[in-house]
Amino acid sequence: MSLSSHTSLVSFFDWVIRSSLMAGILVVLVLILQFLLRNKLEARWKYLLWLPVAIRLLLPWAPESSLSLYNVLSLEAITPRIHEQSQSSTIKKEAERISVAPVLAERSLTLETTGIEKESALNHEAETVQESRSWWSGFKQIGFSNVFMLVWLAGVLFLTVKTVYDQLRLKQSLREGRTIETPLLSSLFHEEKQRLGVKRKVRFVASESIPGPSVVGFNKPVIVISPSLLGALQKDQLQYILAHEFAHIKRWDVVVNWIMHMILILHWFNPLIWLAVHKVREDQEMACDACALDRLSPQQSSAYGQTIIHVLEYFSSSHHQPGLVGLSATHKQMKKRLLMIKHFHNKSYHLSIFGMMVILALGSVTLVNAKGSNAGQGVQTALNQLDQGSSRAIQVSSEYLAAEKQELAYEEVRAKAIKERDELIKAVPAEDKKFIEDEINRVRELAQNSGDTYIMYHKYAKLNKGGHDLSYWGIANHYSTYEDYFKKASTLNGSILQQPANLPEGYQFSKATIKGPLEGEFYVDLRAEGKDSGKLVYTKKFDWNEAGLILLDYTNGKDTLTLSQYKMSDYERTLMARIEGFEYESSRYGKRVFGSDGKQYKYSLYTKSDLTKEQLLGILKAALKK
Span 507-531, mean pLDDT? Predict the structure, then answer.
């Protein structure tokens, strides 16, 4: 490495060390402020308190000020500049190199006067001296600062390689995912996107390989949810999860996480920076909850909180990647989030003059460097100003006394509910659990062998997968030929899809699915009968005569056409009432035409082929002709 390159690296490392020490002091100050102002600052402003820390770590230069906090906490007393140590080490090496020159000249004269027989001995002595200097004296001249710099570089290289590896794995997992095109899920997805005001294109993908639900990427964001979670969530619960994930996209949290990760790579040796990144992620989730709640009605706050906690209990992941934002929380943070959601009101997410003043005051004493003159007096003045702000916050603590009591009471109620749930699960005798397992296996085999549909009511919903009181067996039928599909579909009441007569050349029938309805009087009666029976599980045969969902797939070996029909709920009928005729959507992920009969059913056609809008409309209309 050339001398100029080495000097530049040493100067950069000196900046990293000094900014890391200053940011470490700032981290402690932010934690103290968050503790003192915990009942005064809203979630968004607690999160923004970390902004000066990020700026301090990225700031290559800052003006000097007598108000700087670092006038009191002098970094020069903690550590001298590394490049000064390195320069003195370099000067020492150069001085020693120059001092060797006269010795070599003297030895060359000696060789001329003493003859050839002494040349070998002198060369051996010179080599011995040179080796001694290169291995022992040279090692001593390296110095602690240069050794530390090499260790730091090794850590940066390791974390960089690991980041690249993790991102490649994440992209591979994303490619293995499946784009969600189900009409019901798609309409709910687009509705929440519009509610949160997200203008960018966002994909909706199902994948078991990525901890979910989560947002991947910032340039082309993707919301990822595992298929098992989709099956366990009800419609309103999925709405709240999507609102949370769209809030992450709206707030550009993936970009923030990338910035934090880059900072962490440079400052990996500082435990306070690791603590700060951990706290930022916690506050980020709280601020994201506040953003989502600001777009929901006050009546939905409680259901939103229960949904988030339910998903965290079963699907939370502690593995963090910079290109991914997912639901995560410790048990302690889950309590804080519940309390924030419980006391949330819409103005909580809007402008807070107090929060702005705290951040400006914090930045004014930490984003400037120390000044030689009047340092102690200037910093003392700034600290006094911060003290006065903290004192004002403490003075209003009496106003929050009643709220604190309410929060404690709420915590007691929640702890009691959790305890009752755990006791309920423990109270179920082993023979009852064995009976439930045997009954599930029996009904599964019965549905497989008979081809009939059976719905099971669970007295202990907590023991059922997903925590729901119903499970379905044989609710969906699959067909490999159109004749088999049509034979079954013809026996059903209501509208059915038919094979279009105008299919493009080369397209052949691939598969079909008919799924029974998932709501109606049958389910109301089943729950009532199950409760009255007193049985641990109550099973009833479901002879449905109307399809809840029909899917027809046609393929030419390369592209696929998917026709769908499903029975709309009251909520979906309200949405579709705004649409006249058929609508057409096109994006880089595919094309879709959709519409409804205005009463019961919604129809759609999806494909990634190069067929035109007119061709797709013609195919869908042909499939609806009786």
Answer: 89
